[in-house]
## 1
Amino acid sequence: MATKTAERREELRGALIDAAERTIAAGGLEALRARELAEEVGCAVGAIYNVFPNLDALIFEVNARTLRAFEAFLSEANKTPARSEENSAVAELVHLALVYLEFAVEHRPRWRALFEHRMAAGSKMPEWYLGEQARLFALVEGPLRRLRPDLDGDPPMLFARTMFSGVHGIVSLGLDAKLMALPVAILQKEVSEFVRVLGRGLLAAPAMPE
């Protein structure tokens, strides 16, 4: 009996994540409401909170799927990487930034949900979700470490966050219709040049003392 109860609970959990993902993909984070979600899945509103402590926990599950979807999107894009004559690590960073822009354009509501989610005051982001984020930052840290092998410890991680913040800012503002959205072709040029400038600056900077 306990096994069947656990199975039903797991089935409901999966159905709720699937439904929430569809809702966010269609209408953004603001479209997610417990009552409508329960109606779609065919359960009572209270049943949602028997599976998840709150909607924040459900949103983290959906956002984690989005992060994994970006990884898959990047993996597919890497099958045919753009050829470049510049430093391979810089070229890889530019490629990552352009793929990020492409994902944001093609999956805008889900992408925005990653950054629009606001937790209740005093709440903390789950450790497992921080791990999902860290895995993506590691994609940027890799070419940065090749670019500057003399940088040990935290600097590559900090540079990765700085570079991501800059790229995300360009993409976010550039796609915001309220701030006069820019054509994707212009955003591609802006993102590429921004990353190249940072990459070349790191190359030109003096090596860190041992």
## 2
Amino acid sequence: MRTVVPFDPRNPNSRLSPVLDDEQRRSFAAAMLADVLDAVRGAGGDPTILATAPLDGDVDAPVSVDDRSLSEAVQDEIDAGLPVAVVMADLALTTPEAVGRLFDAGGSVALAPGTAGGTNALVVREPGFTVDYHGASFRDHLVAAERADLDVSVVDSFQLAVDVDDESDLVDVLVHGDGRARDWLADAGYGLTVRDGEPVIEPNA
């Protein structure tokens, strides 16, 4: 399945700036992107990176550059031909099995919600669906499908639900991840410790 992977190389994962500097964030984002591309290919998908700017260095996938808003750029990809999947580049826990569940889900539209109310991945099979990634996009996408008279499947997957936005999400990467993103954190000296009864990430832990 044709699969679009949106990626911002300019200032990736800005909310990780308290723990990772600019260069580290770019390197870590590249590791997560590689994990997502591996998972998409492992599920039988054909990924293209939808980047907001040209990428530095080689990547193992075609790159399409579009600096418009995420919603506008993704909508054009949907309108270009169906079926199409969209899988975010910061899903550090995703696996071929999880992406395969997305690809195999029934319905005219399949949605994989994120833990904070966003839409981390989707498949569109029928025309008429409009994306809007602002705010609580999962709820908005359910409404958009209903308005277009399209049936929806919801893919309940922990691996697709966890997107890496802030420091607390790095705990999930270290605990549950087994790909390049987890290896990057370990190689950079980050580990888990418990503070006030809660697991947290610390350098040289």
## 3
Amino acid sequence: MSCFVSKNSIVRKIWGKSDTVLFIFAGASAEFALNKAVDWLYYTGKLPSDPIGRLFSTVTYARRIIFSNESEALKAIDTMRLIHSDVENSRGSLIPDWAYRNVLFMLIHYSIASFELLERELTVDEKHEVYNVFYRVGDRMGLKVLPPAYEEWISVRLVHLKEDLAKSEYTDDLFLQYKKHLGVVRFKVLLEAQKLVVPNIVRDLLQFNSISWLKPVVPFYKFSRMLRFDDMIKKLLLPKAYMKQIKELDVH
């Protein structure tokens, strides 16, 4: 049976390394806190009670889609849509289509930004491939007004950033929850990682400065992977409760 994403696809390379996925996670956690529709996840109470687990859940679904055959991937997408439909029915209103698009757009942006930070610059064709994979996910979910190609997406993404993000009481509370669940040191590392991959609009809304002390550490970390010291670094910086899940992110 055919795979939803080709086995030699750049998308599998991006999502097959825990380092890259963790930076995707970091960037998305920053931008998601600014999403004007974040109150939907506060409605269920799951996000503030376990923000790390909730975001890992999103990552797990994305990886399940990317590394499954066509049938299993489509089933995962349908399940994801059904879960959101249940929340909509419970609240008695619909999640805005633009809110779904924003989450999809985050996965596209941070897939590219994280890989380029840790590995190399992607070619135009590879960026097209990243976009096309997530376009198919969005199309299966029934999202409307999806740009047909990567070039068109760039300008639409900018409009979304300008119109659909805002700092709110949910933003402040969510960052407090990150700090509570990660601890002070890990939380500071998260903030520095976020600075490296978020767009300027996100950085400005969160009042981040443009300098991250983590930036000069990245080349050292890349070198540490060659010496197989990266696992030790992850154990020092990441919550023990999630180490098993983090190790499972590496596809060998």
